[in-house]
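Methods — Computational structure assignment.
A single polypeptide chain was analysed. Its primary sequence is given first, followed by the predicted tertiary structure written as structure tokens.
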Amino acid sequence: MGKKIKYQKNAPLKAGDKVICIHMDDEFSPVAGGMPGIVQSTANVFGTDQYYVKWRNGSSLALIDGVDQWRKVVEDDDEEENLNENFLFFTTKRALTKQINK
């Protein structure tokens, strides 16, 4: 079983998160839509979250919450956990069914 990748639009970020730029509100930005990067650090500047990203092209331009658009890349590797949740639901349902039928 492989990893399932999900993309969360404009999700909060932390250092180490993988991100893909959708759009930066800067006509001279060296970071084009579709550019991947890794968050290096975060800051809150005058109430606005900023995410400092090391982009694949070498740029280190920050993403600004409420201004720029991005997708956080989430690798879902807990297929076993999902199976356990389904099993728990199944056994709970069976237990409930047995209790109701008594």
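Note: Residues 80-102 have pLDDT under 50 and may be disordered.
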